């Protein structure tokens, strides 16, 4: 038995610092497997992780760390956002001056604003890429259907958070982007006008809209997002970690190592009933015994013996990987914020819209669609797309190809998704770079 | 004086249906309260009074608008049209995405996405989905012309002054 986990209380005043330290950190830096388990398990900030993690989930080329990156960007946004709140006033007469103050007098003001702005844009992009990753690896399939649904809502809330923040500087860019954006909301059938009125608190964008967007941006939506993220993370654990290929598939990949590979082996995930005895499913190599974690965790069971252990300890493997993603995210935001300033245009002039008046870039695909048909482009098609995203894990339930990029078995689903994704990205690019005055086609070159 | 509960054949209490009804009632009560609370919140966030510009406002005397003039009041977002002895107010908020349209020779033109309207506000080109609104114009007792943006009227409805 290692002694590192049992920390004896020392006597005497000299031991005070050590005793305080050990009262906070229960474990010394682990040197044994027991210590590694214990550290992951008993530290508040680490216990959300499993003690051991599948090697497949750690592969950088599988996840690209996108989900983590999104949550780290959110963390940066919360920290810089709270700091900016110390100097910001949501008033039409003061907001713009406060922006100038951030630039001119507040220490690190411009830098904090840059970080906040670029993280917000980054988060929209990374959440979208994360969604693409999950789809293209088939990771939304049972038992992870509902976590995908939560993910879709996370994407929508992220967009809305970014959108509500866009108005706060109260410059021309902000004002007209929100005018255009909320007009799109006004096209919704039946309730469109009411939604727009509730959002703006008035018939046009003004003081009421600024206050409403502020409250949504700094209080309501961050709380909603935090709640959804919590459930999202919790369900990853309860659904058995990240999606990975079936044991059979992995077995087939390394058929040389595993001697018994039965053709046509059942790919149905092992159920509790099956594990309990009757009709034990055939796996590449039969486990000697199967345990459900406390009999409650759905999905993959802990198989003891017989199988090659494909897991490694979270300490240090997972934590190092997470730290790396964190450092990359922060470094990227710091670098970008150092070299590029968040735009700030003229103060609001209600009489003179810029030409063209453009929504935030992630809504320019929408705006491009709206320029063809107000209802279909702004409301009809986006609603259909969101509904398709929500329903897809309940329609497409076959397990084949889960946990692999661009699996051949998922050719149709992946092609459909990629088509939608590429069209939307293309529309955003057209709206951003190829539309000039009067929304006429221009060449960016 | 304790009553022994009546038991069914399998030993479960017989008055289970009463419990079930109470459970249903509690459920209705709880969910009903939640729904009412949600509605109350919705009513709360819908402002009864707005602090921005009023939607009903006086724009001056009829003689301020000479015959044949089309005067755009940008802060009010209406264009006052005088045709002989008739007055009307046409919205200058583009029906496409809410920009302010400017008065052009052919009618109205939106600087944002290139929508064009004719003299009566009907769309002639561009992405605008519908014609510009006409607002009710009335004469106040003191002779002021009053525009009410909450009351849309059919295109071509003029006030005789």
What does this structure look like?
The complex is a heterodimer of chains A (445) and B (161). With 445 residues, chain A is mainly alpha-helical. Chain A has three domains: 13-47, no CATH class; 57-242 and 317-439, Up-down Bundle (Cytochrome Bc1 Complex, Chain C); 259-307, no CATH class. Chain A has 17 helices and four strands. In chain A, the strands form two sheets. In chain A, strands 1-4 form a two-stranded antiparallel sheet. A two-stranded antiparallel ribbon of chain A has the order 2-3. In chain A, helix 5 (66-85) runs antiparallel to helix 7, helix 6 packs across helix 7 and helix 8 (145-166) runs antiparallel to helix 16. Mean pLDDT of chain A is 84; it is low at 1-5 and 251-284. By secondary structure, chain B is an alpha+beta fold. In chain B, the strands form two sheets. In chain B, strands 1, 2, 3, 4, 9, 10 and 11 form a seven-stranded antiparallel sheet that branches. Classes of the chains: A mainly alpha (445), B alpha+beta (161). The interface between A and B is medium-sized, with 34 and 26 residues.
């Amino acid at each position: 038995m290692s002694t590192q986990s049992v920390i004896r209380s020392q006597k005497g005043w000299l031991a005070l610092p050590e005793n305080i330290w050990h009262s906070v950190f229960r474990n010394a830096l682990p040197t044994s497997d027991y210590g590694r388990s214990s550290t992951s398990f008993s530290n508040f900030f680490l216990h959300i992780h499993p003690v051991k993690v599948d090697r497949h989930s750690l592969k950088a080329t599988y996840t690209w760390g996108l989900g983590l990156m999104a949550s780290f960007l959110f963390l940066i946004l919360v920290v810089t956002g709270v700091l900016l709140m110390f100097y910001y006033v949501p008033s039409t007469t003061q907001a713009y001056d406060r922006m100038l103050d951030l630039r001119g007098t507040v220490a690190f003001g411009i830098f904090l604003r840059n970080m906040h702005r670029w993280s917000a844009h980054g988060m929209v992009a990374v959440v979208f890429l994360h969604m693409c990753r999950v789809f293209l690896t088939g990771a939304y399939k049972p038992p992870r259907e509902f976590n995908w649904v939560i993910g879709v809502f996370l994407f929508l809330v992220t967009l809305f958070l970014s959108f509500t923040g866009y108005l706060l500087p109260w410059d021309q860019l902000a004002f007209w982007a929100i005018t255009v954006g909320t007009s799109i909301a006004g096209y919704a059938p039946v309730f469109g006008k009411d939604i727009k009125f509730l959002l703006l608190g008035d018939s046009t964008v003004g003081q009421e809209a600024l206050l409403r967007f502020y409250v949504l941006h700094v209080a309501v939506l961050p709380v909603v997002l935090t709640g959804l993220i919590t459930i999202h993370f919790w369900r990853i654990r309860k659904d058995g970690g990240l999606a990975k290929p079936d044991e059979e598939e992995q077995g087939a990949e390394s058929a040389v190592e595993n001697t018994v590979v039965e053709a046509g082996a059942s790919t149905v995930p092992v159920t509790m009933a099956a594990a309990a005895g009757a009709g034990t499913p055939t796996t590449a190599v039969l486990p000697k015994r199967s345990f459900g974690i406390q009999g409650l965790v759905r999905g993959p069971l802990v198989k003891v013996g017989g199988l090659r252990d494909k897991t490694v300890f979270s300490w240090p493997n997972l934590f190092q990987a997470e730290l790396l993603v964190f450092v990359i995210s922060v470094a990227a935001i710091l670098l970008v914020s150092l070299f590029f300033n968040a735009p700030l245009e003229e103060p609001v002039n209600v009489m003179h819209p810029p030409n063209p008046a453009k929504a935030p870039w992630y809504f320019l695909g929408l705006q491009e669609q709206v320029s063809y048909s107000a209802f279909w482009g702004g409301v009809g098609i986006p609603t259909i797309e969101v509904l398709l995203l929500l329903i897809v894990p309940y329609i497409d339930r076959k397990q084949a190809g889960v946990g692999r990029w661009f699996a051949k078995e998922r050719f149709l689903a992946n092609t459909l998704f990629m088509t939608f994704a590429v069209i939307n990205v293309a529309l955003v690019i057209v709206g951003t770079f190829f539309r000039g005055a009067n929304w006429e086609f221009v060449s960016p070159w | 004086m304790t009553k022994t509960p009546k038991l069914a054949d399998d030993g479960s209490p017989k008055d289970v249906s009463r419990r079930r009804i109470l459970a249903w009632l509690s459920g209705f009560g709880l969910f009903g309260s939640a729904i009412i609370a949600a509605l109350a919140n919705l009513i709360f966030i819908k402002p009864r009074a707005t602090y921005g510009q009023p939607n009903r406002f006086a724009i001056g005397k009829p003689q301020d608008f000479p015959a044949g003039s089309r005067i755009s009041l940008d802060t009010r977002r209406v264009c006052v049209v005088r045709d002989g002895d008739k007055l009307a107010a046409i919205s200058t908020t583009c029906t496409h995405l809410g920009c302010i349209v400017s008065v052009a020779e052919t009618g109205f033109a939106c600087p944002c996405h290139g929508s064009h309207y004719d003299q009566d506000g009907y769309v002639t080109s561009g992405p605008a989905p519908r014609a510009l609104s006409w607002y009710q114009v009335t004469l106040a007792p003191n002779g002021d012309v009053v525009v009410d943006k909450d009351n849309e009227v059919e295109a071509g409805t003029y006030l005789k002054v």
